[in-house]
Amino acid sequence: MTKRTRRNHIPAFKAKVALAAMKGEKTLAELAQQFDIHPNQLTTWRGQLL
Fold this sequence. Notes:
Oligomer: single chain
Shape: globular
Structural class: mainly alpha
Number of domains: 1
Distance between the termini: 37 Å
Order of helices and strands: HHH
Number of helices: 3
Helix content: 55-70%
């Protein structure tokens, strides 16, 4: 098993992902898989956007 290095996401990417979550067209799990992030991270960014 390879260890993934810590990734730093730019604010524009975070905003894009959070806005996609706010639209509600896809589930959080689908969005997390699409953007290759953890669903908890998506929930955190969505909360910060609110």
